[in-house]
Amino acid sequence: MRKLSLFIATSLDGYIAKPNDDLSFLNIVEKKGEDYGYKEFTDTVDTIILGRKTYDYVLKEIGDSHYDNGKRDVYVITRTPKQKVGRTTFYTENLTDLVKQLKSEKGQNIYCDGGAEIINELLKSDLIDEFIISVIPILLGNGTRLFKDGRPEQELNFINAKTYDPGLAQLHYKRILKK
């Protein structure tokens, strides 16, 4: 069975975006030639799931080939139906059903790139298998929380931690399977 991994950055106080979906705080750890393991990680996935706000931001800031490089299936979770573009599907149905279906199919791993609503729905259904969380050395004070209240408790297994020059700490955990 394929695994679903979360690879995401957060502020030290647990925010993945400033108010108004502002991700500019990520720039404080930008370093030429450093991708913090992103390419190595994405080489292990052939499917990406993300929310529409995250998709729109990346489309505007980086371009459509960041996700849809012709080698991966991309599912943008949205409430607004839209025609498929390349290998990008704008998915309006039940997220839990989609992930269960994708996990049962053959292929490489699945990458969840946010946003918070998507992550928390997947946590409520106990579908995230691996957490790779990069902690940015900043306290934002408010914004969009990575983990929302109201989800079940989940115990995780520590895999490793890496630190990088600009102060970024990357934490890697795996879900402990329920018996």
From TrEMBL:
Domain of life: Bacteria
One of the Pfam families matching this protein, by short name: RibD_C
Gene3D superfamilies, A to Z: Dihydrofolate Reductase, subunit A
Stretches assigned to the Bacterial bifunctional deaminase-reductase C-terminal domain: 3-168
Family matches, as InterPro entries: DHFR-like_dom_sf, RibDG_C, Riboflavin_Biosynth_HTPR
Protein name: Dihydrofolate reductase
